[in-house]
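Exercise: predict the fold of this chain.
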Amino acid sequence: MRENKYDDENFFSQYSQMDRSVKGLEGAGEWHAFRKMFPPLTGKRVLDLGCGFGWHCRYAVENGAASAVGVDLSANMIAGARERTREPNITYVQAAIEDVRYPADSFDLVVSPLALHYVMDYRDVYASVWSMLAPGGDFVLSVEHPIFTAEGSQAWVTDKDGAIRHWPVDRYFEEGVREAVFLGVTVTKYHRTVASYIGGLLDAGFVLTGVVEPEPDPALLDTVPGMRDELRRPMMLLLSAHKPE
């Protein structure tokens, strides 16, 4: 299934008002941890799978990357990325992540920010990334944490007064489809375990180089509504892996 809610105008309008849409990487609670997982960018050829508004592509080029290609299924996202981009060595392509195929050794770094939980066959994507990466290349990705996705509703359990009691975790080992309401729209995602995300990388031939369950950026705790509640359970899982020489 290749779902694309981001071209629904009502959904996209709400998404465009979120902090990470308005402020970019500095408005993303995990960015302070995610960027530390990047290798040195000088001279690198970068592929961004699920590029959204192109924040990671521009960051890479601004920090020395030779080129960047951003891929996203959403026409709205690609249009927004192009509007925000002035660098001539950044290219955007509208396509599903599952369909992305470039010749072997085309890139030195592949980034996939918060996209693979929308993809049914993530292991196929891992295999494609392996093929497209040059030996010595790196793969850095973020996904919604399996504790966050397991039960499915992705909503806090509250008391009768609306105060948060706890986050529900259920069906953890039952991988597969989950449907959650996000910005008022039912969105299909795929739950899988931490072991599956990591094991898939190892099975594809990668060497695991980093595993991070990021706490929110301290600078955002008191400026973004609800951010302090993100300290109560992990929302994201960040992984980095290396293709040996």
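Check your answer against the key: The mean pLDDT is 93.
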